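Fold this complex.
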Amino acid sequence: MILIFAEVQNKTFKKQTLELVTYGSKVAKMLNTSCVVLVLGEAENAGQLGKYGANKVYQVVNDHLNTFDSQVYTQVIAKTAEQIDASVIVLAHSSTGKSILGRLAARFNAGSVAAVNTLPSIDGNSFEVQKTVFSSKAIATYSIKSEKKILSLSGNSIAPEILGNEVEVELLSIDVPAPKVRVKEVKKVAGIVPLPEAELVVSAGRGLKGPENWGIIEELAKELGATTACSRPVADTGWRPHHEHVGQTGVAIRPNLYIAVGISGAIQHLAGVNNSKTIVVINKDPEAPFFKAADYGVVGDLFDVVPKLTQAVKDFKSK
Amino acid sequence: MKILVCISQVPDTTAKISFKEGNTVFNTDGVQFIMNPYDEWYALVRALEIKESQGGSVTVINVGPAENETVIRKALAIGADDAIRVNAVSSSALFIAKQIAEVAKAAQYDIVFTGKETINFNRSEVGAMIAEYLDQPYISYATHLDLQGKTATIVREIEGGSETLEVDTPFVISAAKGLAEQRIPNMKGIMTAKKKTLKVVEPIAFDDISFPVRYELPPSKAGVKLLDADNMEELVRLLHEEAKAI
Ligand SMILES: Cc1cc2nc3c(=O)[nH]c(=O)nc-3n(C[C@H](O)[C@H](O)[C@H](O)COP(=O)(O)OP(=O)(O)OC[C@H]3O[C@@H](n4cnc5c(N)ncnc54)[C@H](O)[C@@H]3O)c2cc1C
Ligand SMILES: Nc1ncnc2c1ncn2[C@@H]1O[C@H](COP(=O)(O)O)[C@@H](O)[C@H]1O
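Structure:
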């Protein structure tokens, strides 16, 4: 059996969860087994996960699961994995998944690979997956030798696909220990897709000169429905909040589109963004290193180029 | 507070990455090694600040070969009291965590710090594994940590926001940007570091069950298509029709 841990957010499922279920369903096919999804906490219509390939959805509802404690979640996932004799467990490479993956590996003495971005290649007893290493400067193929295998999947690595129909949800009764971690407050920026999940990102650097000029970036982002990001010096000088800083020491992202405005393209910046499927660079310096990593480029003054691009997007949308 | 900080050695952030022996081994020729930035800038410094304000000790631990001792001495120069090196070479997260947990179990630390991830393996696994071996809570991606007696108030990064929580020692925590400010070792630190204890222990036997077997460099881009600033309609068209990005 393949076990997928489906994260719930505000009782709904994020796109990353749908990607996970599709991934799990494909791995199940390769191994001639079925794909079981575990939902922890309350969720609206967990049965819809069947459409993305789940053969079975289990749900555990318990007050102790209303806030996140990696020890508690690990225990419930591990017990479910034992019950169904899961050979592969897949989680999202998210703040939640990252807190659980290592725990499950230690608990089961199972080989794990974090942040995989391909389906496994399976040949007899050989099980290999790929992930990026050296902060996106290389790709490594990992081999897992243990019976049980635990993976976390990077966001935007596979597109959710409709592979089946809604399934029934079975409530599991599992003892859930009380959390030791007492969550006091959860703060989220409303109405914006968080950077690690964003498909479209507009990012700006020191070329913007100051925080007062950020408006043109926001307008472009708004027109595209994109999330905004920035280079490290921009966050360090306080023009933008730290959670927007991308790169080696910031957030690593792999959106479909990354538009870099007034960013030189230092190796540490590229490390966090060069997995983006398409990169557009706007820079007045034709020698800026970022152009080497770009698919499309505009050499020009960003204060002239960005409003024109925003207008072009507007015109395109109204067509 | 008795604190353990896990430090790893990684290639410098500007290092040129290449491989040898049929792309199975990382080519270290000409590569400078540094302490993993999250371990050095945030985990170690916050641990030292806690010691400075409330007393106790800070021990650093590395699982690695003797070459890593330069980086370990740097941690001592920044202010750690003593160091442990587990004498083993492994790229398996579970192996590393097992060795650290073995040491930590015996010594009973109040807090074990790791960095949020290594910049070479980008796993974010070792901290969670140590926590499981020690049967302790694990708080990842911490950006703030305050202690009142045994109770810690921690802010951690989550997608698109943050979470504030309380937890009692002992626990394992991984450090992200914001937790502390980088410290540069001074002359006195460097001098005293030479006299501090660096204990070398042999690893316990443990099989690697998940490890990299091959590497490759990412496919290079076909080359940039340049567009004129006055022709942004064309860029939008290409993004839609060619790149299928919008
Ligand atoms: C250990 C370490 C870790 C690091 N981690 C990160 C990281 O995670 N993320 C990160 O981003 N950086 C990181 N850095 C910093 C990195 O090396 C660069 O210094 C940084 O990315 C530069 O930011 P920038 O491109 O915004 O600024 P600059 O390098 O100053 O570039 C500004 C660019 O804007 C262009 N420009 C200026 N005016 C205009 C205009 N009017 N119109 C168009 N273009 C214009 C310029 O031509 C230039 O290319 C790290 C550095 C170190 C040493
Ligand atoms: N060889 C090692 N020795 C000591 N600590 C390590 C080692 N490898 C990783 N760590 C710690 O575990 C953290 C997470 O590493 P990783 O799971 O590789 O991303 C690092 O930031 C270090 O604090």
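Chain B has one domain: 2-217.
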